[in-house]
Amino acid sequence: MAVIDVGGRVRQGEELDVQAITEWLIQNGNNVESPVEVTQYSGGASNWTYRLKYANADLILRRPPQGTKAKSAHDMAREYHVQKALAGYYPVVPEMVALCQDESVIGCDFYVMKRIEGIIPRAKMPPELQLTESDIRTLCINMIDKLIELHQVPYTGTELEKLGKGEGYCRRQVEGWDNRYEKAKTINVPSFKYVRNWLNENIPSDSKTCVIHNDWRFDNLILDPENPTEVIGVLDWEMATLGDPLMDLGSALAYWVEDTDNAIFKATRRQPTNLKGMFTRKEVVDYYLEKTGLQPENWTFYEVFGVFRLAVIAQQIYYRYYHKQTNNPAFKDFWVIIHALHIRALKLIGSQKLEANEIAQKYILKFKEIMPK
Length: 373
Known about the structure:
Blueprint: H1 18-27, E1 36-40, E2 48-54, E3 58-63, H2 76-86, E4 96-100, E5 110-114, H3 133-151, H4 169-184, H5 193-201, E6 210-212, E7 221-223, E8 231-234, E9 241-243, H6 245-253, H7 263-267, H8 281-292, H9 299-322, H10 334-370
Helix pairs in contact: 4-9, 6-9, 9-10
């Protein structure tokens, strides 16, 4: 296994018109020189990502997929401008090269950025790295610290202030993802009725407002090849906005598969979170809350929301496959994952109720002890 991820063969039906792209780049002041080698990255399930290795430039192109698109999803211009605005405050964003909104070039918007050479930590870490348990723990901490660093980026009075509406984020997210699931449902997935009602009934006030990534995962990070516990790049900014940082954390945990999770989650694991030295989900939360000083009244809400949100994302992708808008075989069994996420959300809600009952019983026993006979 190669340590540096360079992409692979372009998937059938997802080919690029490289000549048109090259001509457009040159017309827009980017003097790229042929020949060009094109590969495609397999990690993403949403936007399509390609490497364009010219004789004198190493670039990455991002474009939306074909087929039905959610109204606010796959916005290439927004993703481009987010990273451009973040560059002065958060140095691990890639350097933007050019944005194309002329659909006559390849039939859709796309943008090009400079490639950051490094290691993308996917489901299996390259064995050549020979990371120890201590190294893995350091990597885990650095990953969470980079999220905390993002949540501290000053946005007031900058272009970043235009990213989102800010206050009321939790409510808007619950209502928005609820509507998205309703529109993307197919006959072979659960309704999530109880989970959706529970989320609507337990919406907290926002803990604070900050820049959030909204898709925080190990496979959206780039690690330093010389020091693979250090994060040198952060990718996939299409869902970045202004919002509650605890929603960002809760959504990140939905992807966090532990060694004790069931077979379905283990089979769909996309990050090396099962390795010895990695935090458990609880340890991630404890570390983040201790370092930021945030004290949520009901953490379970954020975790349940993250699970439901991931189910909606997976269902939107499966919807395209179900309706033959994509033939990517990786999406064929996504409906099974939706069921597994439904069960996980129900268990989280049930655990919270059980914990609340146990606490109540302890208080009742204590009260009986101190009451006069």
